[in-house]
Amino acid sequence: MTVVNVLLAVFGALLAGALALLWRLRHAFGWERTQLRNEIDRLRAALPPTDAAHDLWRARAETDEALRDLDAAHARVALFENSLAEALTERDEFARDRDEFAAERDRLASERGRLTTARDKLAERHDKLATNYESLRKRHKRLTEDIAELRSHRNEAQRVAEEEASLRKKAEQRALPHDSAQMSHPGVRAQLDRIRSLIDPGGTSAQPLSNIRDMLPAMAQHPSLSADAVADSVIDGADLGAVVVRAVSTCGDRHRRERQHRRDAVLLRMPTAQGRRHLLSTVAAGAPDGAWSQSAAAHACRALETQVARNADFLAEALDGLAPGPVPPSAQAALSLTLANVGRAVEVEGKQRGWIALDDSPAERATATGLTAVLTPLDDRQSRTHLVFGVGDGSVLRLRKGRWEQVFAAADAPGETAGPLPGNTAVASALVETLPRELLVVCTRPMTDLLLREDTGRQFADLWSAGQPTLPWFLSSVVAKVEAAVEDRSLVCLWDFGYAADAEEDRFWDAGPVGSAGSRIR
């Protein structure tokens, strides 16, 4: 309330001052008006009456006209001000329109620049596509010519193989033991001893069945019902003059107990390059947790055969007169292309056949496959150079002077060669030399571990150092029981005799009767 009272007091003082000022102004203006009236009367008295009236009327008329001119001027000024205001408004609108047009112009210029860049990129891509098309057309033409040449080589190879088969058949017919003198050959006697050790004169088994079962690996109680089911064990081999080859892939005890199928694969083929024969030995190891790894492994072997046949001429250059050492760049490029095509073939096959993972792992894990291969020339020579390549954890071992040497391991090579196909195609390669009567083994990781162990490696070396085993005996030596070894076993053994004549001298191998001490490894 104190503030209000103060405000009211101030306002009252101001009002009283204003009224006093008005009163003073009134008296001042009244006095000035009286003075003006007195001056007018004095002027009227000084001037004649008619002239004064006339002048006053004229001054009044001029004053009225001046006022009208002033009003007209005020009206024109007001009109001008309105026009100026409208002009300023229009100027502002034009400025806004100008800014909008400038922004639109900038946007159109940017769009034009982007379209120009896109046009240039499309033109560049068109040029690249045209170049690629021309390159593909030339490559197609070259591949067509290569296919025609390969067909001619294949026909020639078939003709040579037929001639060799005919000659081999004639030689075998000449070598058949027709009389008692030939029946006395040590190799034939050893085979007969094996049979006599198992069969008594009455035709019954000479050994208890339980003992025979104890020497063999455990067999699955039921066949696999999987859509990817394969044979429990496979074996292959050939006597190729100076080179003797045996291949085995057998299911491990762990997979048998869990009623799972074998996940490895082996393949032996003979691609022909530049009129010369070569042996392709392939071992593929599917991932243990791969749902379709065995099918992928088998398909990878077949795809590798196709790709090696296409690039056989380029790969053969690495085997002609070269000492062990780095692989030539041309052969390395051919191997990289070969493995890349094999990886794509496995991936395409998986998509076509619906190979997918059974868990949350990536789909390519379902077809993960390690691949190790050896390309071997088959002509007679004192020292033989093998082209070794692969991805994954496979290895190549050499038996030299009774000792195992790991001469190749893709996982130990520089780069990302440890990963399996189809995700990894960084191939590792090397040139490996063998001398006469040396053994080269291409194998998966479980078999590598057995051969590099001191005890089992020495026993396998003793078993295989004599050379040229029969297929059943070779299978029995591979599947022999080994403590704590329960994984799949897959390998290819290459016996190098240097010359075909030397291989003929070891045609028979007295390995001892089946069921002897050498058949069980502890």
Low-pLDDT runs of 5+ residues are: 175-188, 194-215, 510-522
Number of strands: 12
Structural shape: rod-shaped
Q: Give the helix tally.
A: 13
- The sequence of SSEs as H and E is HHHHHEEHEEEHHHEEEEEEHHHEH
Distance between the termini: 116 Å
User: Which whole number gives the mean pLDDT?
Assistant: 76
Whole-angstrom Rg: 53 Å
Task: Note the beta-strand portion.
Answer: 15-25%
Class inferred from helices and paired strands: alpha+beta
Reading side by side through the largest sheet, how are the strands ordered?
1-2-12-11-8-9
Helix % is 40-55%
Main sheet properties: 6 strands, antiparallel
What does this structure look like?
By secondary structure, the protein is α+β, with helices and mostly antiparallel strands. Helix content is 54%, strand content 16%. It has 13 helices and 12 strands. The chain has helices spanning 2-46, 49-175, 180-183, 186-198, 209-215, 253-257, 293-310, 312-316, 329-353, 445-452, 454-464, 471-478, 500-505, and strands at residues 233-240, 243-250, 264-269, 272-273, 276-286, 369-377, 384-391, 395-400, 403-409, 428-434, 438-443, 489-496. A 6-stranded antiparallel sheet has the order 1-2-12-11-8-9, covered by helices on one side. Helix 7 (293-310) crosses helix 9 (329-353). The longest helix is centred in the N-terminal third of the chain and has 127 residues, at 49-175. The relative contact order is 0.09. The model is unreliable at 175-188, 194-215 and 510-522 (pLDDT under 50).
